[in-house]
């Protein structure tokens, strides 16, 4: 038998002992993660890294760096793409408050605190924390670093195409098309065309294109005009990940201009990953690199080979055979060596692992994590 429970009134006791507060069983993942971070002295190392960016002994104590980076980790793990969402979820969950190390009566950090700390700490600090995590993984034998895969995707910039202006004159689209109409005699100098007239004229003019050489964003000068995965055109960036094929750990997460081709950035990303491994004090050199056909270029393969890297880059189908009479012999040798490797069973196996592991990191970051828009 069970009696009917009744909801208590809104009026609550003015004072409640902390021992009487409800306890959450927590999540085993966050408990294990906190245990791992404590063993590695994660918080102490973070405080030492961030100390130069705070006043010495003056002012109100800031949000501890360990709490800030734990909240970022939580947002990544749970697929929350906004700081407001992270702050709200941490305030609402007893297990997450325990993960952050907050006392029962202590208020959880506000989203504005995350913004202030993110603006205070430079990119180099975040990069050092990334390398610190890799070092912890290396100490736990969770990092190999010999076989890697590289892949990229486009991230829509936080800027609209309506904000683009001419690089040479600073005109926006409306002023630019109006000037063209006056130069062609469609309207008089003192006339102002309507929006419909501007659109009709713009649709009919020949040789119309919007290139990064002529246009840029007024609000985000680093973004580039590019075609996205779904075929639409936006201002965007290119994100490129280097993933350890043995352990599925991201060794480098680089951001490039969206108009840089994959073949232009392959070696740079691998070098960045090797730098992170060196900073993590892992005595391992990247030896093999797998990538899709978008990275295939003779110059890139030759450069990778000169650096001691064995490439497994899928070769695109071409309507005719490659011609080598006007290219250095090293280019031909690198392309043929890469072709032989990709046709072997090992090359096919690495390509399967590449498609599984690298695309998973983008699905987590861009789709689940809400980072498709940068």
From TrEMBL:
Residues 338-352 have a biased composition (Basic residues). Residues 218-356 form the Transposase IS4-like domain. This is Transposase, IS5 family, truncation. InterPro entries: Transposase_11 (IPR002559), Transposase_InsH_N (IPR008490). One of its GO terms (molecular function) is transposase activity. PANTHER family: TRANSPOSASE INSH FOR INSERTION SEQUENCE ELEMENT IS5A-RELATED (PTHR35604). Residues 188-224, 338-374 are annotated as: Disordered. Residues 353-362 have a biased composition (Basic and acidic residues). One of its GO terms (biological process) is DNA transposition. It comes from Blastopirellula marina DSM 3645. Residues 26-120 form the Transposase InsH N-terminal domain.
């Amino acid at each position: 038998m069970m009696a009917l429970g009744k909801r208590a009134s809104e009026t609550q006791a003015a004072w409640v002992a902390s021992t009487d507060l409800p306890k959450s069983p927590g999540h085993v993942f966050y408990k294990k993660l906190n245990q791992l971070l404590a063993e590695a002295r994660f918080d102490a190392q973070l405080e030492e890294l961030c100390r130069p960016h705070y006043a010495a002994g003056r002012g109100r104590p800031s949000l501890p760096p360990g709490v800030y980076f734990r909240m970022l980790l939580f947002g990544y793990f749970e697929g929350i793409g906004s700081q407001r969402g992270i702050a709200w979820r941490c305030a609402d969950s007893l297990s997450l408050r325990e993960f952050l190390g907050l006392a029962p009566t202590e208020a959880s950090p506000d989203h504005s605190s995350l913004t202030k700390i993110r603006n205070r700490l430079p990119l180099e600090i975040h990069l050092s924390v990334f390398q610190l995590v890799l070092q912890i993984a290396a100490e736990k034998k969770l990092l190999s670093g010999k076989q890697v895969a590289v892949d990229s995707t486009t991230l829509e910039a936080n800027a609209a195409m309506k904000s683009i202006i001419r690089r040479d004159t600073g005109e926006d689209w409306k002023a630019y098309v109006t000037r063209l109409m006056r130069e062609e005699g469609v309207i008089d100098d003192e006339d102002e065309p309507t929006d419909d007239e501007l659109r009709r004229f713009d649709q009919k003019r020949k040789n119309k294109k919007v290139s990064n050489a002529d246009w840029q964003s007024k609000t985000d000068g680093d973004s580039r005009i590019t075609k996205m995965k779904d075929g639409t055109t936006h201002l965007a960036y290119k994100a490129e990940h280097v993933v350890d094929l043995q352990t599925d750990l991201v060794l480098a997460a680089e951001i490039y201009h969206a108009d840089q081709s994959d073949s232009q950035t392959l070696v740079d990303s691998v070098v960045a990953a090797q730098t992170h491994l060196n900073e993590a004090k892992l005595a391992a050199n990247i030896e093999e690199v797998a990538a899709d056909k978008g990275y295939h270029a003779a110059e890139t393969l030759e450069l990778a080979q000169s650096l001691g890297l064995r490439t497994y880059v899928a070769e695109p189908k071409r309507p005719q055979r490659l011609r080598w009479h006007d290219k250095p012999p090293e280019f031909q040798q690198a392309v043929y060596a890469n072709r032989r490797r990709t046709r072997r069973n090992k090359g096919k196996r690495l390509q399967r692992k590449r498609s599984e592991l690298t695309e998973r990191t983008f699905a987590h970051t861009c789709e689940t994590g809400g980072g498709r828009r940068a």
